[in-house]
Design a protein that fits this description.
Elements: H1 3-29, H2 35-58, H3 60-64, H4 66-91, H5 96-123
Helix pairs in contact: 1-2, 1-4, 2-4, 4-5
Bound molecules: protoporphyrin IX containing FE.
The site of protoporphyrin IX containing FE (HEM) has 16 residues, from helix 1 and helix 2.
Length: 124
């Protein structure tokens, strides 16, 4: 694995490591208030990023395109903005970060949809 596929996989692994530490901290403290933010760190950060990584590993033509690098930057920005945003939203200290991060995360999936369709046509 190399390039964008590796970037996605390393990011995913960092996210789930932090997510698990956070989960253990919630369990140990008995305070599950931020469970929703933990869940998004794990599901968007680990599961989604890892799936992106697998796709780019299996589709080298997609991984070499400039759009793949744009995809990685948008996806990473979405994750690192959305998760603290959810923390803020749960604590009722603001919703701006959650909104910005959510739309970046949606944009990253839209880029991925375009990538999948373009490469499906190319290989068909
Ligand atoms: C060491 C590993 C982990 C620990 C100790 C842990 C711990 C926790 C705890 C304490 C909660 C709150 C439960 C509640 O309030 O009912 C929670 C919620 C959750 N976790 Fe984890 N977790 C871990 C890993 C993961 C992973 C890898 C994922 C997903 C890939 C995940 C997804 C979720 C989801 C979806 C919720 C529900 C959030 C909600 O109801 O708002 N967790 N976890």
């Amino acid at each position: 694995m190399k390039g964008v596929a590796l970037y996605f996989f390393v990011t995913a692994t960092v996210a789930v490591t932090l997510g698990m530490i956070w989960g253990i901290q919630m369990s140990a403290s008995g305070d599950h208030a931020l469970g929703g933010a933990h869940a998004h760190l794990n599901l968007v950060g680990w599961v989604t990023m890892a799936l992106f990584g697998v796709y780019y590993h299996l589709t080298p033509a997609a991984a070499e395109a400039m759009l793949a690098k744009v995809h990685y930057v948008v996806a990473l920005a979405g994750l690192v903005i959305m998760v603290p945003g959810i923390v803020q939203a749960i604590r009722e200290t603001g919703e701006t970060l959650a909104k910005v991060g959510s739309f970046l995360t949606l944009a990253s999936m839209a880029i991925f949809l375009v990538t999948v369709l373009m490469n499906a046509r190319r290989t068909a």
